[in-house]
Amino acid sequence: MKKVLFAAALAMPLFANAGGFAGIDFISSDIEPDNTTASAKPEALQFKFGSWINRDETLGGEVRLGLGVGEDELSNNVDVEIDRYYGAYFRGQFPNTMPVRPYGLIGATYVETTEKNAFGGSDGENYKDLSLGLGVDFTITKTLFINLEYMRVVDRSGDEITNLGLGLNGRF
């Protein structure tokens, strides 16, 4: 997994001639571990950097890093928080001439969480899987846009993590 993310990060400069984007998103996650029927909704801040493969900005790649900013109770006084996550994704969307541009993402994500119980103990859990997402960009100015996105981050062996994000982004 780390080798794939590293290779994707190294490939980003190859697409730099078509321009790129960077942004910050507020993420609300829904974490449903396989060992319980409950779910937690911790929050995170997500930083992303991407580059386009073509001038119409319809195909590109991006890398993301998320850092937890909030926790939520899972069950039986167990609090869950996101420590960090990172991923690399391919992105396809409508041309940059449209003010509202739907897009799709496919990639790989690695999520690290901490579960704290009421007795002061804690345990870490790591999740990784193929990720799929859908979103929409809303153009504000030529170089500034906001996005709304839903992503199924993990869906493996009963573990499920989904993210709903709202972000502010810039083109360069």
Folded structure, characterized:
The protein is 6% helix and 67% strand. With 172 residues, the protein is mainly beta. The protein has a single domain, classed as Beta Barrel (Porin), CATH 2.40.160. The model has no long low-confidence stretch (mean pLDDT 87).
Give the helices and strands as they follow along the chain: HEEEEEEEEE
Instruction: Walk across the major sheet and give the strand order.
Output: 1-2-3-5-6-7-8-9
What share of the residues does DSSP label as strand, in percent?
Answer: over 45%
Total of DSSP H or I helical runs spanning 4+ residues: 1
- Globular, elongated, flat, extended or rod-shaped: what is the shape? elongated
Broad CATH class: Mainly Beta
**Helix percentage range:** under 10%
Secondary structure: number of strands: 9
Class inferred from helices and paired strands: mainly beta
CATH architecture assignment: Beta Barrel
